[in-house]
Amino acid sequence: MEALQSYTIRFSGLKNGFHDFAYEIGGDFFKHFDGSLIKNAQLKVALELERKTSGLVLQFKLTGELEMPCDRCLKQIQVPVAGDAELVVKLSADPGESTDNLWFLPITAYEINVGQFLYETISLMVPLRALCRPEDSNSCQADFEALMQQYDGSAAKEEEDGDIDPRWEKLKNLKLN
């Protein structure tokens, strides 16, 4: 993906030791991944890369907010997230099978793109339930309670007024044994 080129790290020219990188991830980042649940975000990523002769160790620290719909009222809310992730990259003439946090690259590789890894890590940081904050005056709990008061007893009022659908009136005459 050419759009994720800014997340490519050319490690071939780096000396052995620690190197720091920083990224800011916004809504444009998630547009490059089909079916992404996240549409917008403001995240900061601090990456510490340790270059070794046999590979790389990448330590990610992510902080920021994801914009998501509330699971109750569907308003867009800001959900704070923070987390760490580690990726180990082994350079080998005989690459093995890569896993989530262990990647094998051929010994001739000279760069790595961490965009996909970042996307997967951020996707795993999404909370199971995203809800409005209770201290928010416009919280969905207040909206829910207002709706409950509005519709509470509406069926009883219809019965008192006698405005019952004639099709349902016939059911009153049924006797249950």
Description of the molecule:
The protein is of the alpha+beta class. It has 2 domains: 5-124, no CATH class; 140-173, no CATH class. It has helices spanning 27-30, 115-124, 140-151, 154-161, 166-169, and strands at residues 8-10, 17-25, 40-51, 55-69, 76-92, 102-106, 111-113. It has a 5-stranded mixed beta sheet with strand order 2-3-4-5-6. Strands 1-7 form a two-stranded antiparallel sheet. The chain is elongated, with a radius of gyration of 27 Å. The model has no long low-confidence stretch (mean pLDDT 84).
Give me the number of helical elements.
5
Number of domains: 2
Task: Report how far the terminal alpha carbons are from each other.
Answer: 70 Å
Q: Roughly what percent helix?
A: 10-25%
**Can you write the helix and strand succession as a string?**
EEHEEEEEHHHH
Task: Provide a short characterization of the protein structure.
Helices cover 21% and strands 36% of the residues. With 177 residues, it is an alpha+beta fold.
Question: What's the arrangement of secondary structure elements?
Answer:
Blueprint (H helix, E strand, L loop, with lengths): L7 E3 L6 E9 L1 H4 L9 E12 L3 E15 L6 E17 L9 E5 L4 E3 L1 H10 L15 H12 L2 H8 L4 H4 L8
Tags for this entry?
177 residues; elongated; alpha+beta; 5-stranded mixed β-sheet; 2 domains; two-stranded antiparallel sheet
